[in-house]
Amino acid sequence: MATRNLSTLLPKSLLLLVFSAAARPTAAADPVKVSVYYETLCPDSRNFFTEQLYPVYQDLKDIMTLDINTYGKATDFPSGDSYVFVCQHGHAECVGNMMITCAKNLTQDEEVFMAFSNCVMAEFTAAAAGPQCAEQTGVNFAPVEECYNSVEGHRLLHEVGVKQNALEIALYWVPWILIDDVFTDAQLEAAQLDLRKVVCDAYTGERPAACTA
Ligand SMILES: *[C@@H]1O[C@H](CO)[C@@H](O)[C@H](O)[C@H]1NC(C)=O
After folding, report:
1. Distance (Å) from CA 104 to ligand 1 centroid
2. Backbone torsions φ then ψ of 30, nearest 5 degrees
3. Ligand 1 centre and the CA of 106: distance in Å?
4. From the CA of 11, how far away is ligand 1's center (Å)?
5. Ligand 1 center from residue 71 Cα (angstroms)
6. Mind listing the pLDDT tens digit for each residue in 165-193?
């Protein structure tokens, strides 16, 4: 009985194996999740965004999932139905962080959001760069401006702070970088020096040409 059962089961299980292997294209590995916690007027955040994150994103977006959080070394406390923020580089940085957070919430297209954010970091004047960068990158600025001047924008930025404060290893540096939700000091250093290598090394699928370029 046992032998007969096995012989009837075996072809079925083999067929399943063949079927599932065929149904799954070889290149479909999980994208590498890159989480970045930063602030708009921090020189190290600026360097990382414009020299590492944005260029690498442009080349490797097909194998990356972005998790962008613009809060940094800040704090906030409730005030009426809103929040008051205190940021490392002063009020202008808080407004810039809120503008980016609003743009992320309102921009449907990640590539447009990233182009806008990169422009803001390159100009390095936080919210003051907003209108010009919006025009340059095709972001509808009016709703973004309305957002960061309203309770909604304050609420959205507060939420980013809540998320940041829940990190397993507390942020003590910006930009703070996690790969696939993992933080290590060595990886933070490596990502700031060569994010492309870090992402390519973490990717388990077939490496795209941009990894070897
Ligand atoms: C934007 O914010 C609203 C209100 O908090 C939220 O429901 C929505 O999911 C957000 N959209 C995006 C794309 O983050």
Report:
1. 9
2. -65, 140
3. 8
4. 49
5. 17
6. 999 999 999 999 999 999 999 999 999 99
Q: pTM for the full model?
A: 0.87
Report the alpha-carbon distance of residue 30 to residue 93 in Å, rounded: 34
Structure tokens, 65: 């999932």
What pLDDT shows up at residue 28?
A: 74
Cα 148 to Cα 50: distance, rounded to the nearest angstrom: 23
The residue with tokens 């020189």 is 43
Residue 7 has pLDDT above 60, yes or no: no
User: End-to-end alpha-carbon separation of the chain, Å?
Assistant: 59
Using the predicted structure, report yes or no on whether residue 145 has a pLDDT greater than 70: yes
**Distance of alpha carbon 184 from alpha carbon 173, whole angstroms:** 12
CA of 75 to the centre of ligand 1 (A): 21
pLDDT at 38 > cutoff 90:
yes
CB 192 within 8 A of CB 36: no
Res. 2: pLDDT tops 60: no
* 155 membership: H or E segment, kind and range: helix 151-165
C-alpha 69/C-alpha 37 separation (Å) is 5
Look over the chain and give the mean of its residue pLDDT values, rounded to a whole number: 91
Instruction: Report CA(141)–ligand 1 centroid distance (Å).
Output: 17
Backbone angles phi, psi at 33, to 5 degrees: -85, 120
